[in-house]
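hey so i finaly got around to running the thing on S1 motif domain-containing protein from Caenorhabditis brenneri. pasting the sequence first so u can double check i didnt mess up the copy paste, my clipboard has been acting weird all day
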Amino acid sequence: MWRQLAAQFYALDKPWVLVNTIEYFILKEVEELTIYQVKELIKLLKKGCEASYIARYRDDIHGGLSPQRIRKIIEIYFEVLELNRRVESALRNVIPKVVGVGEKQEVRERLKYCQSVDEVSEIAREYGEGDGKSKAQIAREHGLEAPCRDVLNGKFVDMREFTAHEQHFIHLAADIISKDENVKQAAINLCQLKTKCEILITTHLTEIAKQKLEQKRNGTLDRDEWMKGLSAFSDLVHFKRSAYFIRDYMVSTLNRGEELYIIVWQAEIDSKEAKKFHPFAGREVHPKLKIPFRNWFDYSVKNHFIPTLQLGVKKFLLRRAECRAIELFGQNVERLFCQEGIHDKYVIALDPGWFIKAAFLDPEGNVVSKHVFHFSEESTFNHRAADKLKQWSQYTRDMGKCLVFAIGNGSNTRNTQVAVSKLIQSEQFPEEVEVAFCVVPEHGASKYSITDAAAEEFGKNFDPKMRSAVSIGRRLIDPMSEYVKIDPENLGKGQYQHSNDTKLLHEKRVAVVRDRCSLNGTDVNTASKVLLSNISGLNEELAAAIVDYREKHGRFISRNELKRVPKINEHVFQQCAGFLRVTRPDVSLLKKVPKSMEWNPLDETIVHPEDYALATQLLKDACLTVEDTKTLETILLDPGWYSDKELRIFELLLSKPNLRPPPEMMTEVRNMNDLEVDEIFMGTVTNKTDFALFVDIGVEKDGFVHLSHYLSKVEYENPELTPQEFLQMIEELEIPSVGDQIEVVVERIDNKYDDDSIRIYLKPNQKSN
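ok and heres what it spat out for the 3d tokens, dont ask me to read them lol
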């Protein structure tokens, strides 16, 4: 992916027009690097090296940066390339529109010193061609610019000569003042909250919200979904907070309320306060022209400066909140991909609904059988469904395996769980078979089931409704392989992710997924095309080529055999080889390959083929084999005897995937109506935001653990903590993440409308945590 982007944005013949270098922009954001390290990293990026490869195999350059920090460098790198492209385009398209040699040079310099794409866009808008004339342009056509500038520069002008143009002067002066470089810089500093000013973020109800509330008061409004939404945002109806201390998740919440037409939020700046920071506030003019200047200045502040600040502050906060939301999404998805699958069990996957779609899967995720189940009464399977489940369980017994039900957490999941629990409790299954069930998030399963990718995977004749059931089951068996297929906004991980830019969300998902797929590694002989396409150095075309080769020639014997796949050149092999494991093939296969393609025990490890000779020698010196390293947690080494690279090889040999346990296995259903305050549960974190954790405790809804439980109330509600200070504070705490299992206590249960609106409030069990 990065290689393709580099080819698109970075060409040797494309001029570098920015005054600042790429190294300057990277060092400004990633202070822990030296200029030498940045230059070397840029060389790797120009070659198309990806974050996971750089993180694992090129720490000799970056000194041990995490994949997240390397991704940050890559993001900056491509942002700067895009900035340079935009400036180069603006120099070609904007400069010809600028009148005057001196002003052309001024605009040219402004463009070359731009620090963001927004600055380039602002300059382009400033000199763009409009369809109509502004009032300031009309004033200029009346020849008023020269006397107007004289007044602003402190000279005397007899305004009696221009009595008929009083309004024209106001509009022209306001335009000149607003375009002054010092004024624009002051506005930028205020919009980006670099200058301390009394800027408040406030809200008010929309007209439709007011109408709904009035109908409710009059008793003419039935309970509906809209009123539930209004209730959810009730705390924001009279919201007021300083822009400097408003936290990112609050901004995301405000934005969501605005998207639902419940509230409108804005930045409020008092006129007197705005004037304090306006560069023209202390402007000296001729004593006889103070009154017209004050009128001009007041008009400019009211109609130009304040609206610019209101829009700019809101835009800045939204962008910052979106960046944080996407960062959180990336962290959560990364944890999601670290979940361990269940092994050596048959799975009955149930997709609940008015009728239940069921798929019976073998331990590898292959479909053995499928069926549609119905209830005979609430929470009880009919006879045909029960008989089919017993038949599948007997098949499982014959195969000598255990059985687990993977039940989707969508609509009607409660009845489905109860029905399965009844069968288990009534001992309807063979006593030799251990049976349990668990709840699996079904986010995006239905949407994926109707995509072209799903049709290609399952075949066009495979019922799309059944595809979602298979997806739910496979998420339990091999979570990473299945979740890579789902669009990022449908994964249910993040902080108001549906309100974020889907393109940015997708890019973050791609980056995180590629890193995690790579760093987890995968068996090249079992990995799907989708999973392979997310490995460092590979894409859909190369993944398809690997699968085609596998289908034609059988399993890969060694990593070196990858070089035989069409289009996998030396560079691609270098990027992907360390992340594709090849398990020991049968002895009969080993005899059929040339020496260059022979299997090496290191093919099962994450040691890169470039380092096989060194790794082999190190193992020999330590009297160890590759098989030994699979069970060892550490090796006692004297750092003085080994180089940094040799120590790193030992780390790779001992490295094991850091996976989270699969969902909790249950035999009985927990009922929300049976929950009691102070009851203790072991739960699994399903989502993490900057304001709460969402925890699955085995009922049909996740519980809500407010983040204030991990801080003192004074710390959490401190109104003078900046967003940066707040984030730093919570990042320093050991707050659980997605996939972690924690013990929680039921704090309270709210039910404002009906079962759909129940919220379970939890708190960490302090005695155990």
